[in-house]
Specification:
The chain has 249 residues and is α+β, with helices and mostly antiparallel strands. The chain is built from six helices and 14 strands. The protein has two domains: 100 residues, 2-Layer Sandwich (Gyrase A, domain 2), CATH 3.30.1360.40; 134 residues, Beta Barrel (Cyclophilin), CATH 2.40.100.10. The protein starts with a strand and ends in a 6-residue tail after the last helix.
C-alpha cells in the first residue's frame, strides 16, 4: 500500500519501518523537507517511535509495531481509525507532512575540514587531474572552493554523503576497490565526494587526507557532521597536518 499526500509517498519497509519519499534525485529543496519532517518528528514523536534516519530525498522511520498497536488499542475511540501499526504510523506522518511548511528551518552549521592533498595521502590526485586534463593545483582549487551540503551519514559511522561537488572533477570510482582505505581519506566517486572516517575497503579515488576525526564515539551524537551541515575543505601543508591536534608522526 502506497499512501500519497502532497508531494510525499509513504511505503513500508518490513514490519517495523516506514519510508516517507519526497521526489527523486538530489536537490536541496527536497532535502530541506526531509530535514524539517525529521525535526518535527523528533520534537513531537508518536508512541512506539524509535528513530528517524534522513537521506537524500526520504526519511526512514523505525518504530516498535507492538507498542504502536497497544497504544492504538488503548486510545481507540472510533472504529474507523486505522488498525495496523503501519497504517497508524502512516496517518501520524501524513499529518506532520501537512505541517512541513509551518516549520522554521534551523540555520545550518558551517564546518571546515582541513585536507592535505596529494602525495602518499592522496595517491589518486594525479589520476583525477590527468583524467580531466587539469593540473593537480587546479583539481585542488576546484575541490576546495565549493561549499558542500551534508545530505546524509551512512556506509560507515560518520561517513558524509555530500552534494555540491563541481562536475568538472567528477571521476569514476576504481574498477577494483582497495581492501583498506586509511581513516580521514578524502575521495571522489562519480559526482560525489566524501571522507572515510574509519579504515574500510573502498573504491573511491583518494585525493587527500584530513587529520580531523569524523567518528567521535566519546560524544553524543558520535559524529562530527550531521545532515544539513555546510562543509568546506581547506588545503593544508604537510607540516600543518602533522601539527594538527591529535596527530602523531
Amino acid at each position: 500500500m502506497n499512501n500519497r499526500n502532497m508531494e510525499a509517498i509513504m511505503k513500508p519497509l518490513g514490519d517495523s519501518a516506514l519510508i516517507v519519499q519526497f521526489g527523486e534525485g538530489i536537490h536541496q529543496t527536497i532535502h530541506q523537507k526531509v530535514r524539517r519532517l525529521s525535526a518535527m518528528l523528533e520534537e513531537d514523536s508518536f508512541t512506539g517511535f524509535i528513530e528517524s534516519v534522513p537521506a537524500y530525498n526520504n526519511l526512514l522511520i523505525y518504530y516498535n509495531p507492538y507498542v504502536v498497536h497497544q497504544s492504538h488499542r488503548m486510545n481507540q475511540s472510533n472504529c474507523e481509525l486505522p488498525f495496523s501499526p503501519y497504517q497508524k504510523v502512516c496517518t501520524y506522518m501524513n499529518d506532520l507532512v501537512q505541517k512541513i511548511e509551518e516549520k522554521t528551518f534551523f540555520e545550518a552549521r558551517q564546518i571546515t575540514i582541513p585536507v592535505l592533498y596529494g602525495g602518499e595521502y592522496g595517491s589518486d590526485l594525479t589520476y583525477v587531474a590527468a583524467y580531466h586534463g587539469l593540473s593537480v593545483e587546479e583539481v585542488i582549487n576546484i575541490h576546495s572552493e565549493n561549499e558542500y551540503l551534508v545530505y546524509m551519514i551512512g556506509f560507515a559511522p560518520g561517513f558524509p554523503f555530500l552534494g555540491g561537488m563541481n562536475e568538472n572533477i567528477a571521476t569514476p570510482r576504481k574498477k577494483t576497490p582497495r581492501l583498506a582505505i586509511a581513516p580521514g581519506s578524502v575521495g571522489i566517486a562519480g559526482k560525489q565526494t566524501g571522507v572515510y572516517p574509519l579504515e574500510t575497503p573502498g573504491g573511491w579515488q583518494i585525493i587527500g587526507r584530513t587529520p580531523q576525526r569524523l567518528f567521535l564515539p566519546e560524544i553524543s551524537p558520535p559524529t562530527l557532521l550531521q545532515p544539513g551541515d555546510k562543509l568546506r575543505f581547506a588545503p593544508i601543508s604537510f607540516e600543518e597536518y602533522m601539527n594538527y591536534e591529535g596527530v602523531k608522526s
